Amino acid sequence: PLVFTVEEAEQLRNLAAKNDLLFCVTYTYSGYPLVKQAKKLIADGKLGDIIMVMGEYPQDWLITPAEESVKQAAWRTDPKYSGVSNCIGDIGSHIENTVSYITGLKIKSLCAKLDIIGKGRKLDTNGSILVKYDNGASGVYWASQVAIGNDNALKVRIFGTKGSIEWAQEDPNVMKVTYLGQPTQIFARGHGYLDKVGSGRIPSGHTEGYYEAFANIYNNFANALLSKKAGKPLSPEEADYPDITAGVEGVRFITKCVESSQKGAVWVDL
Questions:
Q1: 183, exposed or middle or buried, with CB in 10 Å at 0-12, 13-18, 19+?
Q2: Cα separations (Å) of 146 from 42, 44, 59, 69, 236?
Q3: Considering the entire predicted model, what is its pTM?
Q4: Rounded to 5°, angle at Cα 8 from 233 and 252
Q5: What is the tens place of the pLDDT at every residue in 125-138?
Q6: What strands lie across the sheet with 174-179, from one edge to the other?
Q7: 109: Cβ contacts below 8 Å, ≥ 6 apart
Q8: pLDDT score at 201
């Protein structure tokens, strides 16, 4: 997450605006070419009105007390370093951003149940979240660090009135696309039938993924900085990076999930 609290996040946003500065947050998964393709399909109306979203991000690395020997586990499970949340702050925030980036939908309200699984822990290691979006659609998010058999299994499924898409981070070079009344299609990265919205560095069929996703974000942001320094308006490609607003929304999402859970898994507005 950007910072610990919503107030801190808004302070950073105000400072950036006051000083006319660009601000990038490395929400990595927005950098994948097929995630950008999914965003384009929805923006073009190919899926119709979005009615349902399913997002999950299971891992299993904290099913054992890893914080006793692994530094990353030690600080992530410590409120002094992670703030109010571990699991939702660490990986649940990526579900929120990936869905927001692809669909453009804003969360109107949510209902969260966060579980602290693991002896002696103070922060969540599992969480289930119901979501209502500003367009009336519904969503279900699940994030876990105690789901045995999962490494880094972020998956997003988005359903509209005309079609659906499914993308999984562990198999990032393909995406399932199904239009109403038609057989499911497999979109593969690097082919000419895709829109030119995602940067690819190697030919189709060759493994490309996590590092390239980072590189796409950095490349767009670097070009944005160069254009701003030269006094030129930013192109859509240059402006395609997670900005300070995405960071603020992520911190607000985490904070509201914790608030909802602490109040007994009640609905709270964002």
A1: exposed
A2: 33, 38, 6, 17, 39
A3: 0.95
A4: 85
A5: 999 999 999 999 99
A6: 185-188, 174-179, 163-168, 155-160, 50-58, 138-144, 126-133, 107-115, 267-269
A7: 131, 132, 267, 268, 269, 270
A8: 73
| Backbone CA torsion sign across 187, 209, 149, 88 | negative
Q: What is the pLDDT of residue 202?
A: 74
Cα distance between residue 21 and residue 224, in whole Å: 11
Distance CA 17, CA 158 (A): 33
Maximum Cα–Cα distance for the chain, whole Å?
A: 55
Residue for token digits 């649940």?
Answer: 92
At position 198, the amino acid (one-letter code) is G
Tell me the CA distances in angstroms from 52 to 36, 130, 155, one per residue in order.
19, 11, 14
* Tokens 């919503």, located at residue: 6
**At residue 259, does pLDDT exceed 80?**
yes
Instruction: Give the span between the Cα atoms of 159 and 105, in whole angstroms.
Output: 13
CB 165 within 8 A of CB 38: yes
Rounded mean pLDDT of 201-230? 89
Mean pLDDT of the chain: 95
pLDDT attached to residue 192? 86
Bridge partners for 143 per DSSP: 57, 127
Residue type present at position 31: G
Pairing relationship of beta strands 185-188 and 267-269 according to DSSP bridges: unpaired
Question: Is the pLDDT reported for residue 204 higher than 90?
Answer: no
Q: What span, in angstroms and rounded, lies between the C-alpha atoms of 60 and 82?
A: 19
Q: Is the pLDDT of residue 209 over 90?
A: no
**Amino acid (1-letter code) at residue 90:** D
